[in-house]
Automatic annotation (TrEMBL):
Residues holding ATP: 250-252, 260-265, 332-333, 376-379
UniProt xrefs under SUPFAM superfamilies: Class II aaRS ABD-related, Class II aaRS and biotin synthetases
Pfam short name (any one): HGTP_anticodon
Binding site for substrate: 101, 218, 265-269, 372-376
Protein name from the UniProt record: Glycine--tRNA ligase
Originating species: Flavobacterium aquatile LMG 4008 = ATCC 11947
Assigned keywords, A-Z: Aminoacyl-tRNA synthetase, ATP-binding, Cytoplasm, Ligase, Nucleotide-binding, Protein biosynthesis
Species classification: Bacteria, Pseudomonadati, Bacteroidota, Flavobacteriia, Flavobacteriales
GO cellular component: cytoplasm; extracellular exosome; microvesicle
Length: 514
């Protein structure tokens, strides 16, 4: 646990030192759980967003994009259920005065049982070697069976209690499990209470006439209220999807773990409209498709897992999370939900307007069912950044810090380095940049010895360093160094574009998802 905490501190420190993420309003001592994406962070974030958009919209003939307004008519949130039901169960520790998500405390306890089971499995795997039958061991080993059964029992009880609104039982569960304040060890808890997460604001010229509004807590409702507009103007046929990226806002009282849980964050969502009765087929399709998208980035298959929901939201008939192994354990990265026809029917009821699809094949109107995929862009950023940050020991015993980002996402694709700041080498370097910058984000670096410049670019995640030396003046060749292997090749300047493109093109990376 201590090692995990140290690794996470290194992630936060590196993000600031190398211009990826700054605390917001830092000169005024910051604002809790609000962050600014710095010069390199904004590029990485943009690249993640574009990688998602290309795979979701450009590569699917039946999915189109939308950019709905952040401010929406307040009845939107009454219809969606957010006004009445968008709450988190919170619990306070009387001794430490700290506030926690009650469900997260229980889920973290359950996850520890899962980790204990995994340790037993790993030890047995080492002990028995090639003869190890993992499935048989899981079903017969007394400890593993007990750990996993207890984990399942806890998650199911929590799901039932939250689903029934039985907050007293959530507290009872915390007390029965003897869950303590993670920081102080105190078990002196208050009752569990619900807290609404929406930010309120006002719209109007004067306080007297102003209308109460909310900053949107999710981007999905902008898609639902525009369903018929998009369908008719785009002549879309079921099944089809509407995708959107954008800011959402939640008044997170327990906002911790850096950019994992923030008050202002960005979502990448797609609502897929299907014929009633087809939703489970498409639900399974999108679970597989979305996991393949994540795996295409090469962050390690072992870092992903599905978690099926024990407690379903009021709008869903099936739901699963793609969880990722963050520096603080497995947590939700993306949700795939079968939302039934709840949203469109609710907006029909509250607006008095029909939101139905006329199926020409069946010659009838119906309200489509919806399958949703929703991934947090900031969480995606953290998953990529934290997994890519490594300390490596080299053959000569020295160490280097390398941010081995998937090259398709790297903020800067190549850095061009003149060996020395004279003899016309900087001029050649700038000419190379002028040519490459039409296709790639490239940088110029002439400060310090070339070895130190390599290390700096490694820490920034730059896939290639291109060194211009005196031989360049003679034969128009340069040295290109690969970040991950540190291998150096002598190539012609005219070949640089194709070499870089082969490594960083979205086409090549997204082909892995097919």
């Amino acid at each position: 646990m201590a090692k995990q905490e140290d690794n996470f501190k290194n992630v936060i420190s590196h993000a600031k030192e190398y211009g990826f993420i700054f605390p917001s309003s830092e000169i005024y001592d910051g604002l809790s759980a609000v962050y600014d994406y710095a010069q390199n962070g904004v590029e990485l974030k943009k690249n993640i967003r574009e990688y998602w958009w290309k795979s979701m919209v450009q590569m699917n003939d039946n999915i189109v994009g939308l950019d709905a307004a952040i401010l929406m008519h307040p009845t939107t949130w009454k219809a969606s259920g957010h006004v009445d039901a968008f709450n988190d169960p919170l619990i306070d520790n009387k001794d430490s005065k700290k506030r926690y998500r009650a469900d997260v405390l229980v889920e973290d306890y359950a996850e520890k049982l899962n980790l204990k089971a995994k340790k037993e499995i790993e030890k047995a795997s080492v002990r028995f070697g090639d003869a190890f039958n993992e499935q048989e061991f899981i079903t017969t080993n007394t400890r593993v069976v007990e750990y996993l059964a207890k984990e399942k029992e806890i998650r199911e009880r929590l799901g039932r209690s939250l689903g029934n609104g039985d907050l007293a039982d959530v507290k009872a569960l915390i007390e029965e499990l003897e869950i303590a304040d993670p920081e102080t060890g105190s078990r002196n808890w208050t009752d569990v209470k619900q807290f609404n997460l929406m930010f309120g604001t006002k719209l109007g010229a004067s306080a007297e006439s102003a209308m109460d509004l909310y900053l949107r807590p999710e981007t999905a409702q902008g898609i639902f209220v525009n369903f018929l507009n998009v369908q008719k103007s785009g002549r879309m046929k079921i099944p089809f999807g509407i995708a959107q990226t954008g800011k959402a806002f939640r008044n997170e009282i327990v906002a911790r773990q850096f950019i994992f849980r923030m008050r202002e964050f960005e979502q990448m969502e797609m609502q897929f409209f299907v014929k009633p009765g087809d939703e489970m087929r498409w639900y399974e399709h999108w679970k597989t498709t979305r996991l393949n998208w994540h795996l295409s980035l090469g962050l390690g298959k072992e870092n992903y897992r599905f978690h099926d929901h024990d407690k379903l939201a009021h709008y869903a008939n099936a739901a699963a999370d793609i969880e990722f192994n963050f520096p603080f354990g497995f947590k939700e990265l993306e949700g795939i939900h079968s939302r039934t026809d709840f949203d469109l029917k609710a907006h029909e009821q509250f607006s008095g307007k029909k939101l139905q699809y006329f199926d020409t094949d069946e010659n009838k109107n119906y309200v489509p069912y919806v399958v949703e995929t929703s991934v947090g862009l900031d969480r995606m950023f953290l998953a990529v950044f934290a997994t890519s940050l490594k300390e490596e020991t080299l053959e000569d015993g020295s160490t280097r810090t390398v941010l081995s980002l998937p090259s398709v996402l790297a903020p800067t694709k190549a850095a061009v380095l003149p060996l020395v700041k004279k003899d016309g080498l900087p001029d050649v370097a700038h000419k190379i940049i002028e040519d490459l910058k039409w296709d790639f984000n490239v940088a110029y670096d002439e400060k310090d010895a070339v070895g130190r410049r390599y290390r700096r670019q490694d820490a920034l995640g730059t896939p290639f360093c291109i060194t211009v030396d005196h031989q360049t003046l003679e034969d128009e060749t340069v040295t290109i160094r690969h970040r991950d292997t540190m291998k150096q090749d002598r190539v012609k300047i005219s070949e640089l574009r194709s070499i870089i493109n082969e490594e960083v093109s979205m086409r090549n990376w997204l082909m892995k998802t097919i």
